[in-house]
Amino acid sequence: MKTQLRARIEQGIDTLRDRGIVPADLALPEFVVERPKDRSHGDFSTNVAMILSKPARSSPRVIAQALVDALPPGDDIAGIDIAGPGFLNFRLAEPAWQRLLRDIHQLGAGYGRNDSGQGHRAGVEYVSANPTGPLHVGHGRAAVIGDCIARVLAANGWAVTREFYYNDAGVQIDNLARSVQARVLDIAPDDAGWPTEGYRGEYLVDVAAAYLRGDTVAFEDHSVTATGDPRDLDAIRRFAVAWLRREQNADLAAYGVGFDVYFLESALYAEDKVEETVRELVARGHTYEDGGALWLRSTDFGDDKDRVMRKSDGTYT
Fold first, then answer.
1. Position 215 pLDDT exceeds 90
2. Does 126 share its domain with 210?
3. What mean pLDDT, rounded, does the chain reach?
4. What pLDDT does 122 receive?
């Protein structure tokens, strides 16, 4: 209905051009048609008269009345009021609402969809929680926001790819593996021998128990079977990541959120993309060394401080 009302207003502006009330070469102004916060102000409201008043060299209320007189006839509008400094408030007639309800009923889930974004592609990456623990409320918020953005784009004809990026390598995953290994060896967080940077959550008890049982975890497009060997840190790492990713996926599925692509950070290392990027940044003068670490001059790009890229032990942040 808003689209139809906007089209009628644009026709009215054309008439104002023809009548010499606004300049004949006036470009279509950027005006809004919206639902008023106060329902007593009608069903839709527009600020178009206030925008037209300057090029017309007239008061907004005078232009508002001229636009009312210029609008093409139709039975969708029951009344138009000029309010305040020059707002136009529209009250729709019952037949307009009845037609709208019929359209909604006939189109069902297709109502509101269009192809305005046809030919455009969008990648939406969201949630992207590292598999070091269960999802929390912040991840849930990100899931809602990202999924809504993807759905709105898709409903408007965009080709949308939903991506979940996660870390399956590096320091955090190493800490996860060592934490699960400690649980496998019956070492608790407050015991001697617990990893200094270990994860202390009780959920790791379940991961360790599943690993010792030799469980198989299926997630996304592959599966991982636990070896049960408490000394095989690589096997523990693979199983822990798979177990936690499966749990995250189950939570997201219950939430009604899904993805087209699951991208692993390890792929960047396997394809030498990280080293390639670092070499490029160094060659362009965007890095420097300090304290044995490689730093990114991120303040050159608006950051509040420079950031460590590669630590003194050779690992990346």
1. yes
2. yes
3. 94
4. 97
Domain containing residue 255: CATH number: 3.40.50.620
For residues 260 and 125, state if they share a domain: yes
Structure tokens at 162: 């939903």
- Confidence (pTM): 0.71
**Domain count for the chain:** 3
**Do residues 220 and 281 both lie within one domain?**
no
Distances (CA, A) of 111 to 8, 144, 160, 178: 22, 21, 19, 52
Is residue 121 helix, strand or coil?
strand
pLDDT score recorded for residue 270? 83
Distance CA 49, CA 6 (A): 13
Residue 317 above 80 pLDDT?
no
**Structure confidence at residue 7 as a pLDDT band (50, 70, 90):** very high
Q: Is residue 248 part of a domain?
A: yes
